[in-house]
Design goal:
Elements (H helix, E strand, L loop, with lengths): L1 H24 L4 E2 L4 E2 L2 E7 L8 H12 L4 E7 L1 H7 L4 H12 L4 E7 L7 H6 L9 E4 L8 H4 L5 E10 L8 E9 L3 H16 L2 H7 L3 E2 L10 E2 L1 H19 L4 E2 L5 E3 H7 L1 H5 L5 E3 L5 E4 L4 H8 L4 E2 L5 E10 L15 E11 L4 H17 L4 E8 L12 H18 L3 E5 L8 E7 L5 E10 L2 H4 L3 E3 L5 E3 L1 E10 H12 L12 E5 L5 H13 L4 E3 L6 H10 L4 E5 L1 H6 L2 E5 L3 E6 L1 H14 L2
Parallel strand pairs: 11-16, 15-22, 18-19, 25-26, 25-27
Antiparallel strand pairs: 1-3, 2-3, 3-8, 4-5, 5-6, 7-8, 9-10, 12-14, 13-14, 16-17, 17-24, 18-20, 20-21, 21-24, 22-23, 27-28, 28-29
């Protein structure tokens, strides 16, 4: 943990260094904000027109400046003093007003030689009183102790330039964002760059096109993916796997409409929180409807259709359906972030004493599902921020009760969980499952959410043993979450080379010449008859070209049929992973494939 904190401080310090270099090279630029991020840092600038070709010049200037930085020194100032110091920067003035609204103190940080730390009187006059190679910024802190020593050469670099709206709002001005990479050592940076080269080869947008899995259309709109037959087959296989795991544990399918009156979301609390992110519909009669951005409020109304006895609980509803969110165009990214999102959603309505058993059952589903793909899972407890209760439903006591329930379950499972303050859903805390893919990248995948607030808002109850109405609890569970997002992760995890059970085409049949086409068709018919997804290449190409085409399509197996195979009444089996596996009869082949498919290896 301390190592991570040191790296975060280094990355934050580098953001200051970047701003100092840019302002020295481009004095008319205005610096705005520059945080540390997962792989490094960035800083946004107004009035700065540069290209990637300028990054090396800026980087060299950063290397020059940091030689003179001996300290990061905090300078406390009043609001009025801060506004005088940054009078020429409207972005800093806006940030100062925000700090005032939050009732926080205003702090500046000076970086440069220790002998030249400015006095407040100097700063009131002008920031130009700073000596060369020093810098002053509005900041909350969190920097390295010795910049010259702690920002090691070779462990960081500037990576790219992008456009970014001020505060992420497309109504605001577009700024120039400069990204940098930063790691603990030169080797760590080099290792990261190697992973990124590999990640580029695995880019799901590129592979999705090459493997003919999905497409986008300008006539339909950005963020609205279209699924080809092969991509749809893969989605169905994934959804079927989740349903297979759920049905064993007593879940029932339900179905809901794609639109709703806005009153449903006003009652659930989603309207106040997300009204600006919803697609709205006005009917001919003037009624206001919205495209559903989530499914849980709909599911509450299925539960609320009757008064349930405690003997009938839990009620477990599962629903794979689309939701719609008005994401900003600049934030859309292939399948990772879309406007039409397919969720494998489920909600359990149960009594308080049933919560543990139900969550453990969902946890088991998640473990089995992600185990089939080789993901390493870790746990994050996403909790509320008690200092900011206005953004959550319910009261502090309810939140403490639900969070303690999740802590106890995690403890009983014998796993360590990172606690993330402020990452809860607005209606309840979560157990988030973090999956590590084959490149070592971590993704938030499945989630289990414990909700004691929505049942209160919708007055969801059961009749207990005393014939009294008892408030129930609601558990939200998504295994893949967004199928689109999980699909993009899965493509990159496997580099498009899916295991046999998941491959759209499981085996390709390659006759050596036209003479073997009849025998190849017989083999095709035998495989299709038992549900194996096989295709036959009847082209006039050479065997070598046929094999190359199979490899490009990343098909797990192919069968070669020539005169020798026909004489032996067998086929030659070749594997994408193991190479030539020799001759095998069709019956043996079917048995081998069925075993491998059933085991989901």
């Amino acid at each position: 943990m301390e190592e991570n904190e040191n790296l975060a401080r280094k990355r934050h310090s580098l953001a200051h260094l970047l701003a100092a270099a840019v302002l020295e090279l481009y004095p008319d630029a205005k610096n705005t904000i520059g945080p540390a991020i997962d792989n490094g840092f960035y800083y946004d600038f107004d009035n700065l027109e540069i290209s990637d070709a300028d990054l090396l010049k800026i980087e060299k200037k950063m290397q020059e400046i940091v030689k003179h930085w001996e300290t990061f020194s905090e300078i406390e100032v009043s609001v009025n003093e801060a506004k005088k110091i940054f009078a020429d920067n409207q972005y800093k003035l806006e940030l100062i007003d925000e700090i005032v609204d939050k009732k926080e103190g205003v702090t500046l940080y000076y970086s440069g030689p220790k002998s030249s730390i400015p006095s407040l009187s100097d700063l009131k006059t002008s920031r130009s009183q700073l000596v060369a190679n020093s810098f002053l910024d509005l900041c909350r802190g969190g920097h390295v102790e010795n910049p010259t020593k702690d920002i090691a050469a070779g462990s960081w670099k500037l990576s790219r330039i992008a456009g970014a709206y001020w505060r992420g709002d497309e109504k605001n001005k577009m700024l120039t964002r400069i990204y940098g990479l930063a790691f603990a050592s030169k080797k760590a940076l080099a290792d990261y760059e190697k992973r990124m080269v590999e990640a580029e080869k695995r880019d799901h947008k590129k592979l999705g096109r090459e493997l003919d899995l999905f497409t986008f259309s300008d006539l339909i709109g950005a963020g609205l993916p279209l699924w080809t037959p092969k991509g749809t087959l893969l989605r169905d296989l994934l959804e079927g796997f989740v349903w297979e795991l759920r049905v064993r544990r007593g879940y029932q399918r339900v179905d809901i409409p794609h639109i709703t009156k806005k009153e449903l979301y006003e009652k659930s609390g989603h309207w106040d929180k997300f009204k600006d992110e919803l697609f709205k519909i006005k009917t001919r009669e003037g009624h206001e409807f919205v495209m559903k951005p989530m499914n849980c409020p709909h599911h509450t109304q299925i539960y609320a259709r009757k008064l349930w006895s405690y003997r009938e609980l839990p009620q477990r509803y599962a629903n794979t359906t689309k939701v719609y969110r008005d994401e900003q165009t600049g934030e859309l990214a292939g399948l990772l972030r879309v406007r039409a999102i397919t969720q494998d959603d489920a909600h359990v309505f149960c009594r308080q004493e049933q919560v543990k058993k139900e969550i453990v059952a969902i946890w088991d589903i998640i473990t089995e599902f992600y185990g089939a793909f080789g993901f390493k899972l870790s746990i994050r407890l996403s909790l509320h921020d008690h200092t900011n209760m206005k953004v959550y439903l319910g009261d502090e006591a309810t939140w403490q009760k639900s969070e303690n329930e999740l802590r106890a379950i995690v403890k009983e499972k014998g796993v360590k969980a990172e606690e993330a303050l402020g990452e809860a859903a607005f209606y309840g805390p979560k157990i988030d499952f973090m999956g590590e893919d084959s490149l070592g990248r971590q993704w938030q995948v499945a989630t289990i959410q414990l909700d004691m607030n929505m049942p209160e808002r919708f007055d969801l109850v059961c009749v207990n043993e005393k014939n009294e109405r008892e408030r129930i609890v609601m558990i939200h569970a998504a295994i893949m979450g967004s199928i689109e997002r999980f699909f993009s992760i899965l493509i990159e995890h496997f580099a498009g080379a899916f295991p046999l059970w998941l491959s759209p085409v499981q085996v390709k049949i390659l006759p050596v010449s036209e003479k073997q086409i009849s025998a190849a068709r017989e083999a095709l018919a035998a495989l299709l008859a038992v549900g194996i997804r096989a295709e036959l290449d009847e082209s006039n190409e050479t065997l070598g070209k046929k094999v190359r085409a199979v490899k490009i399509q990343k098909i797990p197996y192919w069968l070669v049929i020539g005169d020798k195979e026909i004489s032996a009444n067998k086929v030659t089996l070749e594997s994408r992973v193991q190479g030539n596996l020799g001759q095998i009869s069709i019956a043996e082949l079917i048995s081998k494939f069925q075993k491998e498919i059933s085991e989901r290896k």
